[in-house]
Amino acid sequence: MAVGASEIEILKPRCDKREYRRIVLANSLEALIISDPETDKAAASMNVSVGSFSDPDGLEGLAHFLGRIISIHLMLGIHFRMFWESKNFEGCTDSVEPWYGTSYSVEKVTVSIIKHWIAKAPEVDLHLPKQNVFIPSDLTIKNAQEKVKYPILLRTSSFSRLWYKPDTMFSMPKAYIKVEFNCPPSIVSPEAEVLTYIFTKLLIDYLNEYAYYAEVAGLYYGIYNTSTGFEVIVVGYNDKMQILLETIVGRIEQFEVKPDRFFVIKESITKEYENFKFQQPYQQAWHYSSLLLESNTWPLNEKLEALLHLEPDHLSKFSNILLEKAFLEFYTAGNIEPREADSIVQRIEDVLFKSTHPKCKPLFPSQHLANRIIKLEEGLRYYYPAEVLNIKDENSALIHYTQIHQDEIKLNVRLQLFALIAKQAAFHQLRTVEQLGYITVLTQRNDSGTRGVQIIIQSSIKDPPYLEARVDAFLEMFESKLQEMTNEEYKNYVNALIDMKLEKFKNLWEESAFYWREIVDGTLKFDRVDSEVAALKELGKDELIDYFNKFIKIDSPQRKTLCVQVYGGPQTAEYKKVIQQEDTPKLHRIKDIFTFRRSRPLFGSFKGGLSLTKL
User: Fold this and answer.
1) Residue 318: Cβ within 10 Å count
2) Tens digit of each residue's pLDDT (9 = 90 or more) over 472-502
3) Which of 75, 106, 552, 585 has an alpha carbon 20 to 30 Å from 496's alpha carbon atom?
4) CATH number of 152-367
5) Cα dihedral angle (279, 285, 286, 292), rounded to 10 degrees?
6) Which residues contact 323 (CB under 8 A, 6 or more apart)?
């Protein structure tokens, strides 16, 4: 019975002929009655504005539980519809639906059948799920005492180093924590790298029991291999983040190998390695270029060979060696106060380094790892030819890489501006006009602070030497484009690049990834955006042309080039012909990747261990 009616005005479009009335029942239930004279049907719906956010403390999951109870009551009241499909019903149906021609039958479920189901139902008591310890209870936005614009080195010891960046942009009760475990044994051999990979995969597998609860509570984590060990990332609501991080670290500290799970992970990684031969040729070319340029990398075929002989005992022994000595690099950002960040690091140090029987010991200063890049020779073009791993793949690929300089603001902006101008021109000429291949891109490359530019082409119609010749022709043509560019066009490109740099970070993850790159490379130029924008505003067109002529122009004596050529299945004859060619004074074929790597000097690393000095 209605005890009240709304006095508020109900707004509706002029063309709406329906009548609306709001009433309030004696039990405080509000109802909206709609009368439509143009329909012969009726419908009703009810919304109960109580959900998981209304759960009392200590009874998390109550709303979900009550929803299930209501569903069960509806079923016991015979208010439900059940669909059942099976191949066993073939020939037993009496109707065919008109759209897809599916055979079906409709039968009433009798009361006796329902009573039979109830009698046969298992006698299992319903129970609430266990309490989710990751659900945040404090969503307060914390005001850091120092609203620093860039990350600061908050804490350092022989065990770890802590970088801290409070949230000054997003005003969200969320945080981002990354912990990089620098473990020298992880990269000493192909076997070591594979065992480290299995180690991280097993950690993720063991943590699956927490994954659902963490995700429901808005917390996410990842564990990944790195070039110096492995890393742990936790992101989401900051209130219970420390509990999740300590859970992960606890599993690392108490790591043990479960043979059944080991073989599951081993099989998965084996398939991953074996399936690499089916990757596209340009991805294979990228793999070879990384092997050629990075000093601490191992070929995939060697890792696969090592993997096939590994057993659980190997990982049991290796896991202790892996963590015997380590250095932890922390990055904390977001809605975390400095004392909280310091407390997190202290707790993890206590677990790993300061227990009665510590899992880890600190690294000696001489053991700190640094990624170093092969230095190519000026005035010489190296090329590395290889056959595609899948002989049925008719595509060939080329990576044409020009190594230029190490990280330096004024040189960086010249490279970035060149890449911005040349990217569209390269796509237009090589992809649209010449139609060399669907995958055609010009992009910058940054290997641990060593900068360069590369053109990647994958083609089903031309072999790598032809693609390389067309890249050279494009660069010669582009030289005239730079010379003919008007001052207004040049200014527009500069302004476009500045606008791209000044675009704000979209979220905490993106901001953290930017600053972490500075830390992991050792460059530590956290004000990079402001510095590069200032340098761009002072950069003249003639300086860009001089930069191109010195480092990128085809016949420049200071140009350093590496071409990785992957020959498609139909191009076996061309490949055999290329590997028979003799070197020239300016052209050198790389016959063996690792002989080449051992013969070349290395760029200095920006990451000089604890001293933060350049090697």
Assistant:
1) 21
2) 999 999 999 999 999 999 999 999 999 999 9
3) 552
4) 3.30.830.10
5) 140
6) 181, 183, 252, 255, 352, 359, 360
